[in-house]
Write a structure and sequence with these properties.
The chain is an alpha/beta fold. It is about 40% helix and about 20% strand. The protein contains 19 helices and 20 strands. Strands 6-3-7-8-9-10-11-15-14-13-12 form an eleven-stranded mixed sheet. It has a four-stranded mixed sheet with strand order 2-1-5-4.
Length: about 525
């Protein structure tokens, strides 16, 4: 069969796949090849990036202040550029905000990504013309790799929701300022814009709950096939969707919903509840984005660990967690890392971040290719008694326990109780909001305590030595964490509940939401 001017095989191909899916498929094959080459050559590409960063950095005020013109090796670089956090670069960023050029990177940034920090207040992370592709192209690459290996491009022919901050940006001295997720909205290509939800007007709504309801009403009649967002806020969307439509599952509303893209928090505790709300398993793609750079992504459906983004303008360094607070910590480049070691992530980037600690910890599961998993935050731990419990350990302990006891957890956090008001030995206090509570709470608590002893040998020693008594679970009211986050002005906008705190500030604020009062 011939159609005037059109090859029949090509016509059939486009009709069968859909125009966008057919357009994306050959591009995805190219991205997959490039990803494989990057993975195979990651250590050398990292050293090439370092050299380019040094060459460009010599032209900047930071480079002059730190003698980058004299750096000839990685060892020289470690001596010249100290490990820093936002406070270490604040002066340069204030210069940028005041209109100065060539402060951290040649020229001035296109954007400043506005984010909040626990010690530095509001932070402004530069995004330059050179670094912009790191944020958008890596998200694209994650989807293209998934689609290629899953052999499923159909979601490109439907609608997609990406939960984000407002795309409305402020401008100061010629630099646009806003949330990273809002900034990225301005970089979505035109061929994808018509498929993306929410609309600009709805995305600009400042109140999260009003915005959520508006997104539901806007999307309910659409052919939704992909959702991207952190688990607690996607769960809120699912629940509001079912409340408004009266349906039992998300699949009844969106029968072709196929892919969920998530990142930013550990997904495992949310997985069972989210799958229950959807009504059947769907494909899940994990990513590791940050305001400072897109670090890694899940590039194959059958590989849960994340592939380090080793060729995207960022030179990574890794510091063993036990060294992090030393004056001269050991610093390793990618070719020196080992599997099974907890590392703090340091980035040096073409956004002008130098020796910058992003505050996360990771563990490599493979060095061929370089695959990792996020294990927590440097500042989010409990070590009131020398146990140094990290997020990875509490996440795994509660996942193992809810699996065995057929419970579901919406959200939780853990804090030390050093001086129990009821007297007796101190303990770790867990504030747990259940979606489905365990049938036997006492057995659940005991199992969780035993799981924690398995995860952390120091905790086990403290328990067996009766320094700590068995952990205590405080069951929380429904929507406790939503109400708490709303009370501190952090509901929505990709804000996350800390898994661990080493003090009582958050624990004391959560007390009003406890069920056992």
């Amino acid at each position: 069969m011939k159609i005037r001017g059109v090859d029949s095989d090509l016509f059939t191909y486009f009709c069968r796949m859909g125009i966008k899916a057919a357009f994306v498929k050959p591009l995805a094959r190219r991205i997959v090849r490039q990803t494989a080459e990057m993975a195979a050559e990651a250590p050398q590409r990292q050293m090439d990036i370092l050299q380019e960063l040094i060459n460009q950095g010599r032209k900047t005020q930071f480079g002059q202040d730190h003698g980058l013109d004299k750096v000839r090796s990685y060892q020289d670089y470690c001596k010249a550029v100290p490990i820093s956090d936002y406070e270490g670069l604040r002066g340069y960023i204030e210069d940028i905000k005041a209109g100065k050029v060539d402060a951290l990177w040649p020229g001035k940034p296109l954007y400043l990504a506005k984010t909040s920090g626990t010690t530095s207040g509001t932070k402004y992370i530069p995004i330059t013309r050179d670094s912009l592709s790191n944020h958008f192209n890596t998200a694209r690459n994650a989807l293209f790799n998934y689609a290629h290996y899953a052999d499923d491009f159909s979601f490109f022919d439907g609608q997609m929701i990406f939960f984000s901050g407002t795309p409305r940006l402020d401008t100061h001295n010629g630099i646009a300022i806003g949330r990273l997720s809002g900034i990225v909205n301005h970089q979505v290509p035109s061929w994808l814009q018509k498929s993306k939800l929410p609309s600009y007007e709805i995305n600009c709504i400042s109140d999260w709950e009003t915005k959520l309801t508006a997104i539901v009403h806007e999307s309910v009649q659409k052919d939704l096939r992909l959702i991207g967002g952190i688990p607690p806020w996607v769960q809120m969307y699912y629940e509001r969707l079912l409340e408004i439509t009266g349906k039992s599952t998300v699949a009844e509303v969106f029968p072709d919903y196929r892919v969920y893209v998530h990142g930013g928090v550990n997904y495992a505790p949310y997985q069972a509840k989210l799958q229950e709300l959807v009504g059947h398993p769907i494909h899940e793609v994990e990513t590791y984005p940050a305001s400072e750079g897109f670090i890694a992504f899940q590039y194959r459906p059958d590989e849960k660990a994340l592939l380090l983004n080793a060729d995207s303008g960022i030179f990574f360094e890794f510091i063993p967690v036990e060294d992090f607070h030393q004056d001269q910590p050991r610093r390793f480049h990618l070719g020196q890392v080992e599997t099974g070691v907890q590392y703090a992530v340091i980035i040096n980037s073409n956004a002008g971040l130098w020796g910058y600690s992003i505050g996360d910890t990771v563990e490599f599961t493979s060095t061929n290719p370089y695959l990792l998993r996020v294990t927590g935050r440097i500042k989010h731990f409990i070590s009131a008694f020398g146990e140094h419990v990290i997020a990875k350990e509490v996440d795994q302990a509660i996942l193992d326990t809810i699996t065995k006891h057929h419970a579901q957890v919406t959200e939780f956090t853990v804090a030390p109780q050093i001086n129990p008001p009821e007297g007796g030995a101190p303990y770790h206090e867990w504030f747990v909001e259940y979606a489905a509570p365990p049938a036997d709470p006492a057995a659940f608590s005991l199992a969780l305590d035993q799981a924690m002893q398995t995860q952390n040998i120091y905790y086990k020693d403290l328990r067996q030595g009766n320094i700590l008594r068995e952990l205590v679970i405080r069951p929380m009211q429904s929507n406790a964490y939503r109400n708490y986050m709303k009370s501190i002005g952090k509901l929505g906008e990709q804000n996350k509940v800390p898994r661990l705190t080493n003090d009582r500030k958050m624990a004391d604020a959560l007390a009003i939401y406890r069920l056992d009062q």
